[in-house]
Amino acid sequence: MSDSRAVLITGGSKGIGRAMAEAFRDAGYRVAATYRSGGVPDGVLGVVCDITDQAQVDAAFETVEKELGPVEVLVANAGVTKDTLLMRMSDDDWQQVIDTNLTGTFRVVRRASRPMMRARFGRIILLSSVVGLMGNPGQINYSSSKAALVGMARSLTRELGVRGITCNVIAPGFIDTDMTAVLGEDVITEYTRRIPAGRLGHVDDVTGAALFLAGEHAGYISGAVIPVDGGLGMGH
């Protein structure tokens, strides 16, 4: 049952990550969330952690394991953007995004998988993006990092599936958060026109998919990419 599961969500201070923490908490899970600033929702164990630092990742897991027990559900949500066109993109713009979105996710997945293997149970959910599948001008670093998560999930599925561990990817489209609000009204209007559903997504659309993948009815789903984008990407 969900109330016996410990969940760790990375990047739980705002946006989709914060909504994830609230949704899992309200569903009866024991929830911890990492953050770098801003704090986490009430009823959630907050752990300060920069996932680009292996020592901080290890310390965060030790704290969660002490307070809640071994992490059984991991939602790897933490990510950053450094958007600019290719010819203007610096090595640092590239590296910061890859270090957080891809390498940071690798670090938390690797650390979470050890106790999951011992328990022969685990649910790993990686937050990608529709632009990881479709591409987007000005986001070569971000889309590359998010596309790579698909390969990570599928390789992990082949390695650890026999241990009762699933790893799936959620690829949100344009979700109504602070991150999309800064795009400007013209950009939002254009994307709304292109989205078959005719609207931006809500964080509940994404958390609903995560709750399903973490739950009892998704044990035979692994290596899948679940688009939550109103039909924008059509799974591609």
UniProtKB/TrEMBL annotation:
PANTHER family: 3-OXOACYL-[ACYL-CARRIER-PROTEIN] REDUCTASE (PTHR42760:SF133), SHORT-CHAIN DEHYDROGENASES/REDUCTASES FAMILY MEMBER (PTHR42760). The keyword tRNA-binding does not apply. One of its GO terms (biological process) is fatty acid biosynthetic process. Pfam families: adh_short_C2. It comes from the Bacteria. GO terms for molecular function: oxidoreductase activity, acting on the CH-OH group of donors, NAD or NADP as acceptor; quinone binding. Keywords: Oxidoreductase. Belongs to the short-chain dehydrogenases/reductases (SDR) family. CDD domains: BKR_SDR_c (cd05333). Signal peptide: none annotated. Residues 5-178 form the Ketoreductase domain. This is 3-oxoacyl-[acyl-carrier-protein] reductase.
